[in-house]
Amino acid sequence: MACGAVGLGSLAACGPADATEAAPASTAHTADALAGEAPCASLPATLTVNGEVNWTVECSASATYSDPGAVAVDGCGNALTVHSYNSGQNPTPREPGPNPKVEGDYAVSYWAQPPGGHAVAATRWVKVDDRTAPTLSLKGAAHIVHTCNRPFVDPGAEATDACYGPLSHVIWRTGEVNAWAEGTYTVTYTLTDPGGNVATPLTRTVEVVDCPW
Ligand SMILES: [Ca+2]
Question: Within the chain, which residue ranges are assigned CATH 2.60.40.10?
């Protein structure tokens, strides 16, 4: 038994009098509490957060959050029930847990209460972060031959982002095509998502030909 190992109290105080009669840890707890002598409670309990205490999670519209939880033991090494707040594990609307679909900083709290002892608590800080660039793609061909003397309508580009979803509306286009002057023009499409990640720029060349003048 752990109590015997740490040399505090007697085996009788922390567990069954006969060490050969193994009893569940919870039974030992109850016996201690009822007896009014709680050597296990007099020793500090410990709570350990599983996984990373400062955890960065990649933002993704398709992700779900799964909390690694925590474990706790009393001063004698007996397992304690760990309660959590905002872990996403509790069926309470106000405790949805970290949302991996939305960038932000979230806190998950854990605590355990040994019978007759002091509670122990810890917090996990979860940062949902968008660190991935959006995907940018051209609509239409990368090289277009355009007949002079009629307006050129750019087919544009489209973009999606794992965290922010469709981002075609914020693509930045530079470069003009003069549809009334022969030549080869370059149009460039760039995009930075709200997380500050820059997509690989794309270009299109437009060749204006056959001007009547
Ligand atoms: Ca992104």
Answer: 2-129, 135-209
Give pLDDT tens digits for 86-116. 998 876 777 889 999 999 999 999 999 999 9
Cα 128 to middle of ligand 1, angstroms = 12
What distance in Å separates the CA atoms of residue 197 and residue 190, rounded to the nearest whole number? Answer: 11
Q: How far is the CA of 123 from the centre of ligand 1 (A)?
A: 27
pLDDT in tens, 113-156: 999 989 999 999 999 999 999 999 999 999 999 999 999 999 99
pTM of the model: 0.73
* Distance in angstroms between the alpha carbons of the first and the last residue of the chain: 99
**Count of residues in the chain:** 213
Buried b (16+ CB within 10 A) or exposed e, 196-208: ebebeebebebeb
Query: What residues form DSSP beta bridges with 184?
Result: 207
CA of 135 to the centre of ligand 1 (A): 9
pLDDT above 90: residue 198: yes
CA–centroid distance, residue 169 to ligand 1 (Å): 15
The CATH homologous superfamily of the domain defined by 135-209: Immunoglobulins (2.60.40.10)
Tell me 28's DSSP state.
H
Ion ligand 1: residue ranges with CB closer than 5 A = 130, 132, 161, 163, 193, 195, 197
According to CATH, the topology of domain 2-129 is Immunoglobulin-like (2.60.40)
Give me ligand 1 centre to Cα 69, in Å. Answer: 28
